[in-house]
Automatic annotation (TrEMBL), chain A:
<keyword id="KW-0963">Cytoplasm</keyword>
<dbReference type="GO" id="GO:0005634">
    <property type="term" value="C:nucleus"/>
</dbReference>
<feature type="domain" description="Beta-Casp">
    <location>
        <begin position="245"/>
        <end position="363"/>
    </location>
</feature>
<keyword id="KW-0862">Zinc</keyword>
<protein>
    <recommendedName>
        <fullName>Integrator complex subunit 11</fullName>
    </recommendedName>
</protein>
<keyword id="KW-0479">Metal-binding</keyword>
<feature type="domain" description="Metallo-beta-lactamase">
    <location>
        <begin position="16"/>
        <end position="210"/>
    </location>
</feature>
<dbReference type="InterPro" id="IPR001279">
    <property type="entry name" value="Metallo-B-lactamas"/>
</dbReference>
<dbReference type="Pfam" id="PF07521">
    <property type="entry name" value="RMMBL"/>
</dbReference>
Automatic annotation (TrEMBL), chain B:
<dbReference type="GO" id="GO:0160240">
    <property type="term" value="P:RNA polymerase II transcription initiation surveillance"/>
</dbReference>
<dbReference type="Pfam" id="PF10996">
    <property type="entry name" value="Beta-Casp"/>
</dbReference>
<dbReference type="InterPro" id="IPR001279">
    <property type="entry name" value="Metallo-B-lactamas"/>
</dbReference>
<dbReference type="Pfam" id="PF21382">
    <property type="entry name" value="IntS9_C"/>
</dbReference>
<dbReference type="Pfam" id="PF16661">
    <property type="entry name" value="Lactamase_B_6"/>
</dbReference>
<dbReference type="GO" id="GO:0090287">
    <property type="term" value="P:regulation of cellular response to growth factor stimulus"/>
</dbReference>
<dbReference type="GO" id="GO:0005829">
    <property type="term" value="C:cytosol"/>
</dbReference>
<dbReference type="GO" id="GO:0032039">
    <property type="term" value="C:integrator complex"/>
</dbReference>
<dbReference type="InterPro" id="IPR048660">
    <property type="entry name" value="IntS9-like_C"/>
</dbReference>
């Protein structure tokens, strides 16, 4: 029985370092190649030695697919391809291909230039890695090789995020990456057709959450910003350059316009202007509303949001500043935070998840005294708010996707074990399918049971359909017979006669002749007629003919009668049949040996 | 659900005679597929231009009266420079609508935005309930072109609708091209925006190489055709037949993604339309001529008018000018692009990175706009306006270059510039679009003083490229418009300007119905796992195995499956044993065919092993006869047959049968 194997190298019962190996139909595919934000050591990257202990990965992988540009999904890519070694194809969508190298370079700079780490990938390696990337378009069927095909679906989540359908023969797997089942301010909702994969591998970040409506969270966010501005305070929103930042900018921009607010909104420079540009050029990946109106008003050309300069932080009066990075662990957001932390009128809004060890994580846990470098302590007096705007499917959304795709099995990744356990129960209950949640390095195996596609000769099919009609009678199904010819990779089903012909074989006729003695005091023709009548009554539904040449034929079995030379009452029946009629021939010879019933006329 | 059609016939209904604005319907495996929906707009050349502002010249044109004075149509027909024009809202020549019932069309496949302009006529008011498939750029730019057309027509409404001239008796007496115009009764005015929106709401977007299943019977897939943004060729196939539809393809490196040629391989039939209309004009040469004429006119203080469509070649013209402006010191010359959809077209061109050639895609990764016209706009060298009214009239400076439509010169802002600039020989009109004869286009403006330059740029395949392509992809049969099977009328000696193939292409014309040749011999069927696992293959020759299959066939939604024969229900227990004995075999299961031969020596050895030792072998002409003396049984062994004659000993007979079968292969 064919099997599909799934092994997470990362994101197994964990968030971060997404990297999942799939073996299907003799092909090996790596899904995502991410880094872990929570580690600075070897655990930062997936353990590629699982694939092979020595040397390059090229021989062991047929392709690598990256679902979106977040570093926990692509951060290990240059390490994998350039340092471990992989020269095969890497697939990602156009926006991911555009944005991913920028984030990788940013990540490299922070790690190498700021933290001084060595033995890390270089700028050149990022470039070389990106040369191996083949862009994917939505819904395009990409033939990786003769047998393996992949197809990308829209996933929402971030610009260019994709789910991917992987197919070999009639077996298939869908990997969701991160996705979002509700449209937001700038992106649409994930969608997939009823592709009925053998396995659906889904993220499960919000496995146990049914989130309140997005509108409520947005209103809450705007209210908090507005109140702070009104009382003359400053709002800091630490963000990552691409993704939520754009969504929140659109939100504030429209709010400012509607309320006619004058307080300045700033966006920390660097990546961000560039980032907005990507959104403009890849507008077809945004939601329908933005796409429809982009000619009149491009939502990513912000009127109220200006570039930030570090000197503005000391300006008096209210302002809103978006600054990178999102977890307050370094850079501009941290600098501004330090300046504003002491004033209770100010506010910091954390719009996403923070990894342990970061300032963001500390203040969200209520820590009000922070130890900074040089033994200084920072009193946190400003208000701290957490607001989840990260775009992941919640439990409801995950169930919705299962309903859309109708998988035969489910694998949960990219979530916490306890939460997964809960969702697994729900899925198994509601859909009666098996649900797995492998840990990192653990392999799950699913046996598939694919139908075998075969080419049937049109003559044979036509003959069958003419005889049986398009739908067989369930009580009396017609049986068709044919010969399956297996040659190299082709499977052909033809009639037995055609098979002989195509294979250049002679037919071998196997015949049987059997003499049966019978006591029947009648003339030969009468005996023959009595046999005919007898068989007619016994064999219902068979073709029985009394032929003028003095034979009876049952289907293609010939019966002749002659009298014995010594005794005219003793008749000798000659039965002759071919192997094809063996069952009937054998039956008839046994039947006739018993003699004819007396009541026959 | 549809009933099954196993018939081999595949037919093609040809609804348009225009080779570059095709409209064909393919009936293939119980699906009815329309291939493109081109609108022949050359009919508008028979009409008077629609001026945006009152034109004393046009309104003073004399009416037409037949020479003998018997026919007087001076209200409907006007004469200008020896030609007669219809004074009415311009009308289009639609695809044929009587050849088949349009409501039976299941899907319409659009290959590029120029080939969809008749869509509202087909999808609205005909009972059409199907789906239209197109790529996103094709839909968006197609919408812009339709919107522009509607806008051109609706902003200068004409009260008069001329119909008398269409009377057969009268038309016969008319001069010039009007007399020969075909099917004038079926010509139609432009559709409304509402009809456009309704038609386009039926479009389902597809991406290149996306596989779309139709009714389980047919798979369609668009391929990049390299001609315009989102332009596609289509593959229509089942498991065993493949039709390629090639329409408007280009091998030149312009802005779109390159043409996908390899996917066209192994086609049974290739339908070839949309070759270049200018087989002798080299697009690069034309582009050079365009630039030099433009520069010359501007230097001499004249204006340049470029009648063009709002999308397509204009992007390449602007890109060419972007590189040319500085070197030709045209840095201060204003370039205007005037169209109700100018802004949209320029904006849309920048957001389709996926559909662009590699160089342009790379720019988007930087991120920079893929087309340099963004920079021309930013530096104020190129300005765009929705029409000549409004801002344009106050900002307009001369000498300048104006890009505007419609290329037929019958409607749109171009009519205004013809009236404005036609009288001065300083000005130049440069024709770049190949769809209209420039002499016909200019006819209602004669006499003209302005210079005319004809640089048609048609990047579609020429005959040389297409024969190379066909050699490469090797379709079994080629179907094409009849125009491609003979040299152009005006160049009848140029046998290089036609398709010469073996077997010769099957030509079609408007209203043709072709039966496409297919030799389909197989159909796809799926063997369910249970049955598949029960099959016992045996190797019959090295590398070739066979297995006999007995199965029940299920056919539903054009999908066939084979499953195991259900086991017969157990016989009712009440029946007497004797009766059961007499039941004939339930299933009339024929035994497989046999093949091979029974070798004498080996067979004798086998018999011996089974205790049959007294065998007398007699040689015959065709083989041997074996007398099993103790058993009083004969076995006749021949090369292609075995005959067992055995009386009154059923156990022996079946043993002998099984021994013989050991030497034979079952099929």
């Amino acid at each position: 029985m064919p099997e599909i194997k799934v092994t997470p190298l990362g994101a197994g019962q964990d968030v971060g370092r997404s990297c999942i190996l799939v073996s299907i139909g003799g092909k090996n595919i790596m899904l995502d190649c991410g880094m872990h934000m929570g580690y600075n050591d070897d655990r930062r990257f997936p353990d590629f030695s699982y694939i092979t202990q020595n040397g390059r990965l090229t021989d062991f992988l047929d392709c690598v697919i990256i679902s979106h540009f977040h570093l926990d999904h692509c951060g290990a890519l240059p390490y994998m391809s350039e340092m471990v070694g992989y020269d095969g194809p890497i697939y990602m969508t156009h926006p991911t291909k555009a944005i991913c190298p920028i984030l990788l370079e940013d990540f490299r700079k922070i790690t190498v230039d700021k933290k001084g780490e060595t033995n890390f990938f270089t700028s050149q390696m990022i470039k070389d890695c990106m040369k191996k990337v083949i862009p994917l378009n939505l819904h395009q069927t990409v033939q990786v090789d003769d047998e393996l095909e992949i197809k990308a679906y829209y996933a929402g989540h971030v610009l260019g995020a994709a789910m991917v359908h992987i197919k070999v023969g009639s077996e298939s797997v869908v990997y969701t990456g991160d996705y979002n089942m509700t449209p937001d301010r700038h992106l649409g909702a994930a969608w997939i057709d009823k592709c009925r994969p053998d396995i659906l591998i889904s993220e499960s970040t919000y496995a146990t959450t049914i989130r309140d409506s997005k509108r409520c969270r947005e209103r809450d966010f705007l209210k908090k910003v507005h109140e702070t501005i009104e009382r003359g305070g400053k709002v800091l929103i630490p963000v990552f350059a691409l993704g939520r930042a754009q969504e929140l900018c659109i939100l504030l921009e429209t709010f400012w316009e509607r309320m006619n607010l004058k307080a300045p909104i700033y966006f920390s420079t660097g990546l961000t202007e560039k980032a907005n540009h990507y959104y403009k050029l890849f507008i077809t990946w945004t939601n329908q509303k933005i796409r429809k109106t982009f000619v009149q008003r491009n939502m990513f050309e912000f009127k109220h949001i200006k570039a930030f300069d570090r000197s503005y932080a000391d300006n008096p009066g209210p302002m809103v500043v978006f600054a990178t990075p999102g977890m307050l662990h370094a850079g501009q957001s941290l600098q501004i935070f330090k300046k504003w932390a002491g004033n209770e009128k100010n506010m910091v809004i954390m719009p996403g998840y923070c990894v342990q060890g970061t300032i963001g994580h500390k203040i969200l846990n209520g820590q009000r005294k922070l130890e900074m470098e040089g033994r200084a302590t920072l009193d946190v007096k400003l208000q701290v708010e957490y607001m989840s705007f990260s775009a992941h499917a919640d439990a409801k959304g995950i169930m919705q996707l299962i309903r859309m795709a109708e998988p035969r099995n489910m694998v949960l990744v990219h979530g916490e074990a306890v939460k997964m356990e809960f969702l697994k129960g729900k899925i198994e209950q509601e859909f009666s399918i098996d649900c797995y949640m492998p840990a990192n390095g653990e392999t799950i195996t699913v046996t598939t049971n694919p139908s075998v596609p075969v080419d049937i000769s049109l003559n044979l099919l036509k003959r069958e359909m003419a005889l049986g009609g398009p739908l067989p009678d369930p009580k009396k199904p017609r049986t068709m017979h044919g010969t399956l010819i297996m040659k190299e990779n082709s499977l052909k089903l033809v009639s037995s006669e055609q098979a002989l012909k195509e294979l250049g074989l002679n037919e071998h006729q196997l015949r049987f002749t059997c003499r049966v003695q019978l006591q029947d005091p009648h003339s030969d023709p009468d005996t023959l007629h009595r046999i005919y009548t007898h068989l007619k009554s016994v064999l219902k539904g068979y073709t029985i003919q009394h032929l003028p040449d003095g034979t009876v034929m049952v289907e293609s079995i010939v019966i002749k009668v002659s009298s014995s030379a010594e005794d005219t009452n003793t008749k000798v029946l000659l039965l002759s049949w071919s192997y094809q009629d063996e069952d009937l021939g054998s039956f008839l010879s046994t039947l006739l040996k018993k003699g004819l019933p007396s009541g026959l006329c | 659900s549809r009933h099954l059609v196993l018939a081999n016939s595949v037919s093609l209904y040809c609804l348009s005679g225009h080779p570059t604005l095709p409209c064909n319907v393919l009936k293939f495996k119980s699906t009815t597929i329309m291939l493109d929906c081109g609108l022949d707009t050359t009919s508008v050349l028979n009409f008077l231009p629609l001026p945006l502002v009152h034109s004393p010249r046009l309104s003073k044109l004399p009416g037409w009266v037949s020479k003998d004075g018997t026919v007087n149509l001076e209200k409907e027909l006007k004469e200008c420079a020896g030609r007669v024009f219809v004074d009415s809202q311009p009308e289009f020549c639609l695809p044929e609508r009587e050849l088949l019932d349009l409501s039976t069309i299941d899907v319409i496949l659009i290959s590029n935005y120029h080939c969809m302009m008749a869509l509202p006529y087909i999808t609205e008011h005909t009972g059409f309930t199907g789906t239209v498939y197109a790529t996103e750029p094709t839909l968006q730019i197609g919408r812009l072109l339709m919107e522009e057309l509607v806008n051109f027509m609706e902003r200068v409404p004409k009260a008069q609708s001329a119909t008398c001239w269409k009377n057969k008796e009268i038309q016969r007496m008319l001069p010039g091209p009007l007399k020969d115009a075909v099917d004038v009764w079926t010509w139609k005015r432009c559709y409304s925006m509402q009809e456009v929106n309704s038609a386009l709401s039926k479009v389902q977007l597809v991406g290149y190489s996306q596989k779309v299943e139709l009714f389980g019977a047919v798979q369609i897939s668009p391929l990049s055709s390299g001609y315009s943004l989102g332009s596609s060729n289509w593959i229509i196939q089942s498991h065993h037949e493949k039709v390629s539809y090639v329409s408007g393809s280009s091998l030149l490196t312009t802005h779109p993604q390159p043409m996908d040629q390899s996917s066209l391989k192994n086609s049974d039939v290739l339908i070839l339309t949309g070759l270049t209309q200018m087989p002798t004009a080299n697009p690069d040469g034309m582009l050079g001529e365009f630039c030099s004429n433009l520069a010359m006119t501007i230097r001499a203080g004249g204006n340049v008018l470029v009648p063009c469509y709002s999308s397509g070649v204009i992007y390449d013209l602007l890109e060419c000018l972007y590189q040319f402006i500085e070197s030709a010191s045209l840095g201060t010359t204003p370039f205007y692009f005037i169209s109700p959809v100018a802004n949209s077209s320029l904006e849309f061109s920048q957001i389709f990175a996926e559909w662009l050639c590699h160089n342009k895609q790379t720019k988007v990764y930087l991120p920079e706009p893929p087309f340099p016209h963004a920079e021309l706009i930013q530096t104020n060298k190129l300005k765009h306006y929705p029409s000549i009214h409004g801002d344009f009239s106050s900002e307009f400076r001369q000498p300048c270059v104006v890009f505007t439509g419609h290329p037929s010169l019958r409607f749109g802002d171009v009519v205004h510039f013809m009236e404005l600039w036609g009288k001065s020989s300083l000005n130049t009109i440069i024709f770049t679009e190949p769809d209209f004869s420039y002499l016909d286009a200019l006819a209602p403006y004669q006499p003209l003083a302005m210079k005319c330059v004809y640089c048609p740029i048609d990047t579609r395949l020429n005959f040389h490229q297409v024969s190379k392509l066909l050699k490469e992809v090797q379709p079994v049969h080629v179907v094409c418009p009849e125009q491609y099977t003979q040299p152009p009328l005006t160049q009848s000696h140029r046998s290089d300007l036609m398709l010469e193939l073996q077997p010769p292409p099957m030509p079609y014309r408007r209203c043709s119905v072709l039966n496409l040749p297919f030799r389909r011999r197989y159909e796809r069927v799926y063997i369910l796992p249970e049955l598949a696992n029960s099959l016992v293959p045996s190797e019959i020759k090295p590398g070739i195995s066979v297995a006999t299959v007995s199965a029940v066939l299920h056919s539903k939604d054009n999908k066939h499956t084979l499953q195991s024969v259900p086991k017969p229900p157990p016989a009712p227990p009440t029946k007497k044993r004797k009766r059961v004995m007499e039941e004939p075999p339930v299933v009339l299961a024929p035994k497989p065919l046999l093949s091979g031969a029974v070798p004498l020596e080996a067979f004798l050895a086998t018999l011996q092993k089974h205790g049959i030792t007294e065998v007398k072998v007699e040689e015959t002409a065709d083989g041997h006869i074996l007398h099993l003396q103790a058993e009083d049984t004969l076995i006749q062994l021949e090369e292609d047959g075995t005959h067992i004659v055995c009386d009154n000993n059923e156990p022996l007979r079946t043993t002998l049968r099984d021994l013989v079968l050991r030497f034979l292969q079952k099929l």
